[in-house]
Amino acid sequence: MNRPRNIKPATFKPMVPDVPPMSRVMARRQTALSGLMQRLQRSQACLAAVREVLPWGMASQLQAGGWDDEGWTLLVPNSAVSAKIRQWLPRLQEVLAAKGLKVNAIRVKIAKGGR
C-alpha cells in the first residue's frame, strides 16, 4: 500500500541572468537606430548634392554608400565610371562643402553585384 509522503515541492531557480527592463533595452535600440538614420540621411544628402553637378549619364549610375567620421563612400557600377569620378573628386568636395556637408574624404568603390 502506498502512503502519501510529505514531499516538499522543488524550488525552481532559473539559469537565466537578470533581464534588463524593456524600457532600457528599447532606449538603447532607439539611440542606435537614430544614429543609423542620421548617417543614412547624410549619405543621401551627399548623393543628391553630387548628382546636381555631374552629367546625367554619370549621375544616374551612382549610389550612396556608407557615411562615417572618416568620410563618405560613393558606389559606382564599374571601373570606367570610377576613374571618371576620381577626376571629379576636387569639384565634388567643393560642392559638398558649399552645401554644408562636411566630408573628410570621398571614397569611390565599385558596387558588387550591380543594381
Give the key terms.
alpha+beta, GMP Synthetase, Chain A, domain 3, 3-stranded mixed sheet, 3 helices, 3 strands, elongated
Protein described:
The protein is of the alpha+beta class and 115 residues long. The chain has helices at residues 22-53, 56-59, 79-98; strands at 63-68, 71-76, 106-110. Strands 1-2-3 form a three-stranded mixed beta sheet. Strand 1 (63-68) and strand 2 (71-76) form a beta hairpin. The longest helix is centred in the N-terminal third of the chain and has 32 residues, at 22-53. The model has no long low-confidence stretch (mean pLDDT 86).
Kindly summarize this structure in a few lines:
The chain is an alpha+beta fold and 115 residues long.
Widest β-sheet, arrangement of strands: 1-2-3
Q: How is the main sheet built?
A: 3 strands, mixed
Please report the first level of CATH classification, the CATH class: Alpha Beta
Helix content: 40-55%
Q: What shape does the CA trace take? A: elongated
Beta content: 5-15%
- Rg is 27 Å
The number of domains is 1
The CATH fourth-level homologous superfamily: DnaA, N-terminal domain
How many E strands? 3
